[in-house]
Amino acid sequence: MVDRAIESLPSSLYSGESLSERAYAHIRRDIIRGVRAPGERLRTEKLKTIYGIGPTPIREALQRLSAEQLVQMSEHRGFAVAPLDLNDFSDLNFARVEMEKVALRRSMALGDSVWEGGVVAASYVMAKAEKQLESGETGSIDEWERANAAFHTAMVAACDSRWVLMTRGRLQDMCERYRRASMYTDSGHRVTTHEHQAIAEAVLSRDCELACALTEKHFSTTLEILTSNDKSHSVSVSAPTRKAHQKADRTTID
Length: 254
Known about the structure:
The protein has helices at residues 4-7, 16-33, 44-51, 55-67, 86-110, 113-135, 140-155, 162-183, 193-204, 208-229, 239-246; strands at 71-74, 78-81, 84-85, 184-185, 188-189, 234-235. By secondary structure, it is mainly alpha-helical. Helix 5 (86-110) crosses helix 8 (162-183).
């Protein structure tokens, strides 16, 4: 499906760099959300049709995504979406846990009443998104992901290190692909309401050790679920996730 917002605007309004940024943002988002499935070949001509952006910005975007390891590049087969590999996720999750705990400790040490209010608000939105996900409302997975990202960001919002926050933000994005796959498995829907509630309570009480331990367990559960449901050390985006997005984009890249 062509991006109509882009199509309706004169091409003269965009520089090559801004189109490249737009292509990068769209393709990255769709890889993370599972619209572009793990292993899917990313043909420039098809992507041009889907996103309404020319081949040069598309190729530039794919090069950037390759550097981020969201896309794989082969001399003979071109570009493809990187697979979901549980061995790689184990390392990724370790890095994320360690960085999250650094940010969390700093945030709890420095957080004021405004920060506390943000934690309470994020907890409320998270609980509401969980209920919507359980009820099967349209778009609830995306709402849950936004709420989940906002929740964990709120916990560390008082951290005063820009580099720590930038690094943990990127790790959070990289983990989203696996998180989505863990939400629906052979074991059924994963309910995280109590996990998030316990983390928020520990953070608000400034119990640093408990908050870090609960956060580590919360993140590690995703890996445990995927590992127990797939012994081949590779995993695909879950069917409910794919179906939800394919309503908006029926185009696949063969």
